[in-house]
């Protein structure tokens, strides 16, 4: 259950990051509200996951999902560049996440 909570928390991190971009510096109401609600839910689920997962593992996986997910949303939805170097960097993050998961005792 902790891993599911952590996965959803990471996905919500992507939601709040994308909504924050759309909020235009918190000047637009609905994207600002989505940012705040998704942020609170993401932190709550991360906290729940940390009850049984090690801090380093949980936080690394959470931030990694958020980073790579936001990278994908930036390319797929916001039209950001998908240069070979940026894609390689995202691949290295994913490799680190896999290694972190494999090294976890929980």
From TrEMBL:
<keyword id="KW-1003">Cell membrane</keyword>
<dbReference type="InterPro" id="IPR037185">
    <property type="entry name" value="EmrE-like"/>
</dbReference>
<keyword id="KW-1133">Transmembrane helix</keyword>
<feature type="transmembrane region" description="Helical">
    <location>
        <begin position="85"/>
        <end position="102"/>
    </location>
</feature>
<keyword id="KW-0813">Transport</keyword>
<feature type="transmembrane region" description="Helical">
    <location>
        <begin position="33"/>
        <end position="50"/>
    </location>
</feature>
<keyword id="KW-0812">Transmembrane</keyword>
<dbReference type="GO" id="GO:1990961">
    <property type="term" value="P:xenobiotic detoxification by transmembrane export across the plasma membrane"/>
</dbReference>
<protein>
    <recommendedName>
        <fullName>Guanidinium exporter</fullName>
    </recommendedName>
</protein>
<feature type="transmembrane region" description="Helical">
    <location>
        <begin position="57"/>
        <end position="79"/>
    </location>
</feature>
<comment type="similarity">
    <text>Belongs to the drug/metabolite transporter (DMT) superfamily. Small multidrug resistance (SMR) (TC 2.A.7.1) family. Gdx/SugE subfamily.</text>
</comment>
<keyword id="KW-0472">Membrane</keyword>
<dbReference type="InterPro" id="IPR045324">
    <property type="entry name" value="Small_multidrug_res"/>
</dbReference>
<dbReference type="GO" id="GO:0022857">
    <property type="term" value="F:transmembrane transporter activity"/>
</dbReference>
<dbReference type="InterPro" id="IPR000390">
    <property type="entry name" value="Small_drug/metabolite_transptr"/>
</dbReference>
<dbReference type="GO" id="GO:0005886">
    <property type="term" value="C:plasma membrane"/>
</dbReference>
<dbReference type="Pfam" id="PF00893">
    <property type="entry name" value="Multi_Drug_Res"/>
</dbReference>
């Amino acid at each position: 259950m902790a891993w599911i909570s952590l996965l959803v928390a990471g996905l919500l991190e992507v939601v709040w990051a994308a909504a924050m971009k759309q909020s235009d510096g918190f000047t637009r109401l609905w994207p600002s509200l989505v940012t705040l609600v998704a942020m609170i839910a993401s932190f709550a689920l991360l906290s729940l996951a940390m009850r049984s997962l090690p801090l380093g593992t949980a936080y690394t996986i959470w931030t990694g999902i958020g980073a790579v997910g936001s990278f994908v949303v930036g390319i797929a939805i916001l039209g950001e560049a998908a240069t070979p170097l940026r894609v390689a960097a995202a691949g290295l993050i994913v490799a680190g996440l896999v290694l972190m998961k494999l090294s976890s005792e929980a």
